[in-house]
Amino acid sequence: MSFVVDGSEWQFDGQAIDDVDAAIDAFLERVDTAQSRDETVWIGDDLQSRPMLDGQDLWTMAQQLSAEVQQSLAAWLMSAPRYGDEVDWPAGAEDFRIQIDGGEPGDNCDVAWAHHSVRAGRAVACLSLNRDRPMRTESAAGFATVHWVKDERSHREFWRSVIEIERDSEATLARLAPHAYPDLFFCEGVWDGLGRFEGGYTRLSDRVRRYLAKLNDHGHWAFTFPPPALRVGEPAGPEHHMRPSNQTIERRFHGLNLEIAPENPDVYRDGTCRAAREVEVQNRTLYCEWHGKFELHQNRLYVHPPVPESEDKVVIAIFHKHLPLPR
Question: How far is it, in rounded angstroms, from Cα 63 to Cα 73?
Fold first, then answer.
């Protein structure tokens, strides 16, 4: 579950140095993001020596970049791991000749490493300056779909695809969710609840991952964006500090094709029912009345709006067949 830098893209002939500076700066931000999520970013042996601009190698060219980019670049490359140093190479990795997206085949060690890794069932993507989508790659060994990651959207899409590549299961989702849904806060023990679903997790897996993706991408907006906006992109009203009502939040989720609603007040008034919906986050007790319905009468996801204790992320609190209701 790593990235490899596609060094073939680091060819800047004909580009203004300011544009090169901006491109590398944006790239380094993506490196920082990956590292903050404990994701490995490999480089190839020739990244620092290959000609990049008018025959200049990386460090000669870097003297023309801004001081900030030079410093960030040096800090990263001083400790960047090389995939060539890995002990366990994927089968076929010595074959560098790769066809990308139907183009002419050519030698590309970096993409070859990702290609052969994917063919071996390992989740590896290319960290890119320019491209931000999955593409079909082909070598003498066969075909593979390799993701190129440039921004947050393509970053998340890669990790969400990995859940399927590595055979979606309760354990796979629990392991990869922090990467695929980085803007959600997962409570301790939350994944145990997947085993409590009526009929098991497997038949609901698509729905579970769809809810998590929408909550990650738009849940904070749905819970906090000032009214009267009901759809992402609509402007806020004049009262920018006003919190949306429960009715507005519920309508926003409906617009996202999610059936998420708060519990009736009598659920909170019943001590047993209330306690079943409470979780502890950083010594704060949260009553998680908002629940998503995977099926009409059973199988639920209980969540809580963002709070400081959850790092301002939507809280994924409980998966369950159905928590108790008042008699």
Answer: 11
Measure the CA–CA gap between 108 and 111, rounded to whole angstroms. Answer: 6
Q: pLDDT per residue over 171-229, tens digit each?
A: 999 999 999 999 999 999 999 999 999 999 999 999 999 999 999 999 999 999 999 99
User: Closest Cα to residue 116, out of 101, 94, 147?
Assistant: 94
| Amino acid sitting at position 255 | G
Residues 28 and 125 in one domain: yes
d(Cα 261, Cα 250) in Å, to the nearest integer? 6
Domain shared by 196 and 314, yes or no: yes
Looking at residue 99, its amino acid is Q
Domain range for 205 is 184-320
Q: How many domains does the chain have?
A: 2
Mark whether 200 and 297 lie in a shared domain: yes
How many CB atoms neighbour CB 26 within 10 A?
12
**What does pTM read for this prediction?**
0.91
Please give the span between the terminal C-alpha atoms of the chain, in angstroms, as a whole number.
Answer: 48
Q: What are phi and psi of 138, to 5 degrees?
A: -140, 140
Examine the domain organization and report whether 212 and 104 are in the same domain: no
Each residue of 141-168: pLDDT tens digit? 999 999 999 999 999 999 999 998 888 9
Residue pair 165/154 in contact by the 8 Å Cβ criterion: no
Averaged over 90-117, what is the pLDDT?
95
Between CA 227 and CA 238 the distance in angstroms is 9
Helix 17-36 with 67-77: angle, nearest 10 deg: 40
Q: What is the pLDDT of residue 166?
A: 84
DSSP code at position 147: E
Q: Is the pLDDT of residue 1 over 80?
A: no
**d(C-alpha 250, C-alpha 289), whole Å:** 12
Domain stops at, among 132, 152, 172:
152
The mean predicted confidence, pLDDT, of the chain is 95
Q: Is 325 inside a domain boundary? A: no
Helix 152-165 and helix 205-214: axis angle, to 10°? Answer: 170
